[in-house]
Structures are given as C-alpha cells and as structure tokens.
Amino acid sequence: MAAPDPRRWQALALVCVAFFMTILDVSIVNVALPSIKNSLHVSDSSLQWILVAYTITFGGFLLLGGRAADLLGRRLIFMVGVALFSAASLVCGLAGSIGVLIAARTVQGLGAAIVSPATLSIITTTFEEGAERNKALGIWGAMGGSGAAAGVLFGGILTKYAGWEWIFFVNVPVGALVLALTRSIVRESKVEGERSFDVAGAVTVTAGLALLVYAISKAPDVGWGSGRTIGELVGAGALLAAFAAVESRAKAPMVPFSIFRTKTLAGSNAAGFLLGAVVYANFFILTLYVQQVLGYSALKTGLTFLATAGTVIPVAGLSQALVTRIGVRPVMTLGLALITAGMFWYAQIPVHGAFAGDLLPGYLLVGIGMAFAFIPVSIGALAGVAPHEAGLASGIINTSQQIGGALGVAIASTVAFTHVKHLLQAGHSQPFALTSGFSLAFWVLGGIAVASVVAAFGLVRSSEVVVEADAVTAIA
Known about the structure:
Largest sheet: none
Mean pLDDT: 87
Structural class: mainly alpha
Distance between the termini: 25 Å
Helix content: over 70%
Strand content: under 5%
Number of strands: 0
Number of helices: 19
CATH architecture of the largest domain: Up-down Bundle
C-alpha cells in the first residue's frame, strides 16, 4: 500500500475552502435580492433568474464535472473550476445590468459544478477508506452543511456594510489564493489508461438534468399543471431515458449503473436527495418569513442564521466520531429525524414571532441535524467506490442534493404562495396570509423529511462502510 500523502490535511483544508465558497453562493444572494432589484432596476420576474441561472448550471453539469475529473485529472479540473468560478464572480460584482449578472451567474454555476465533485473525489483518492477518510469527510460535510446557513449570514453582513456587489467580489481573492496554493499542495490523480469519453451520455444527462432543474424552478411561476411545465418535464424525462439507453450500450459508460449495487450508496443518494429538498427550501422559506413577516433587515436576518451555521461545525466532529464508532445508518437517521423535528417546529410559526421563543429552537434542531445528516450521507455515498469512480460517485451525490434542493424550493414556493393568494383573496391581512402560507410549506417539508428518515433507515447498511482504518469493506 502506498504511503499516505504527507500534505493530505493541507489539501483537505484547501479543497474545503473552495467547496464552501460554491455552497455559500447558493444562498448568499437571497438577502441581497432587494438591494440588487433597486440598484439594477430589476422586475420581480427577472429577479428570480439570479438564483435560477446558478441552480440550473450547478445541478445540470455536476455529473459531467465529476467524470471529467476522473479522466482528465482531479487537480487540473479543480483548478479550472476555481478559476472559472472566481472570474465569473468578478463579472457578477461588476455587472451594470441584469442581463450581464444573469449570464455571469450561469458561468459561476458551471464553475461550481466543476469544483464540487472534484473536491470530493480529491478527498476520496487522497485518504484511505476508513476512520481517516471519515474524519476528512466529516470536515467536508461540515463545510457543506454550514455553507447554506452561512450564506444568509454573510450575505446580510456584506449587503449592509459593503454593498451587494461584495457578495460576489469576496470570492475573487479567496479563489486566487486557492489557485496559488493548489499545485504545491494537492497531488494530481486520474484514471490511468482510460481516454475514451462517453460523449452521447454526457450530452443527454447534462441536457436532461439542466432541463429538469429549469422546469421545477419555473413551475411555481407558470404552474405545475401548465402545458409548458408538463412539456419540459416530459422532455427532461425523455433525455434521461435516452441517457439510460446510451449507458446500457456504451463501451465506457459515463455512469456505469453497477455502482448502485451497493445499497448504502444508493440509499445515501436517496436520503441526500430528500435532505437537499428540505434544507434548501427551509432556508429559502425562513428567509422570507424573517424579512417579510417579522420585518428584519438583511443584516439582522443574516445574524439569526448564525445559530444554525455556528452549530453545524462543532457538532460535525461528534458526528464523524459516531459514524466511525456505531456506523452510518443510526447517525444519518438521527440527523434526519432532528431536521424533521425542526420542520414541524417551524410549522407553528406565529405572525408576531420572537427569535428566542419561536426561531432559536428550530435553528438549533436543524443545525445539529445537518451535522448528523450531511456527514454520514457523504460517507455512505462513497461506500465501496473504487478510486477510478471517485469523481463519478462525487458527482452523483452532489447532483442528488442539488436536484433535490431545486425541487424542494419549487414545491415549498408553490405550496406557500398558492395558500397566500387564496387567503389574501378571502380578505385576510398580508402578515397572516404569509405566515399561514409559510407554515403550510413547513408542514410539507416535514413530510418530505419523514420520507428521508424512512429512506435512511430502510436502505442504508452500516456493514457496507469501512469504519476503521485497517478494516476491510464488507459488501452485504
């Protein structure tokens, strides 16, 4: 066995910084939207594209980014992604029109889709499966779990004291530092001897996923039952069916379906999909409630989320240790159960809510639950994965969470604002209507969270995950 990379912990720190930056940008824009609207004179219908453009390319290109990392070199692709993301961030901050901002956000999402699976595959190939990799994935999972909450916090602070442009400018020096250090710290790795690339598979899966994310992101505005939404969903389904047909015949498939034979890997992706749906929608709906109902400023809104972001990181160490000691399934199930409890707590939100009594308990439940859920999901999604499929497995779990996140936000938005519209038409006050709509959305998210608990408990097998450094993977 080759000696461990002496720079592996420095490499972990470096790739985690880049990964945190990409996750941060999913939510950092939320609290800055009113400022962007006023600065660029943007209509409400165009404003949402600042979010959707990033989500579409991020979710749509993850599998392609992961496979490219395996074939072309994980360090190389990681650096390309960081450079692309940083350059697009600079253009976002300099944008003087909504068109330029949306175009730059699209490129930024592409950079994130390249960076995210590359970071996870670098960790997978740098650390041997077992306790040490679990610790590394625990740190990586803490970065991802806290990134969405920290995005709201940093977005509020930067928007208040520096201007909305700085939610993008801040990425530039961070990206430059990561690029300057990567070559000397991160070792290169790729699949040796394999040069063929499944072009048909790459085109069909990327187009299918991008269209799927677009359809579910726009559905709340045009209607789930509209001809347009149905047509887009059918088109996405046809492209993904074509992808499955291509993969079944390809000599070197982009996604060999044999990877899903490990039930823990498949179960972790199912749980990750549902986890993404709940967590991303939770932050979206909570941000709206805190700002639109409670009347908090962008800064005050961001500071409230410190309770969640600040909880994930310290609890992550305990989560990783418990996974190593008692296995993936019990820790994952506990984390998802705590998030479920958080959703049902939020479902009780009143019109005149108080931070300490009505928000803080939920913030803490979700923060602890995220630490106990994201880390075992990440570990389980790499169970039994061979080094040459590290990028693929990384792309799959990232895709599961991002597609789940897009669907969760779309469902929660539809439920909330359909109910709000009915209550306003019935003559209720706007604060009451908004609170009732958000409450109903949280009940729905609670139901999705219950499904994630069932998926984790029923599909994941701790026996398929190496938990000690000198153990041997036992595939049940």
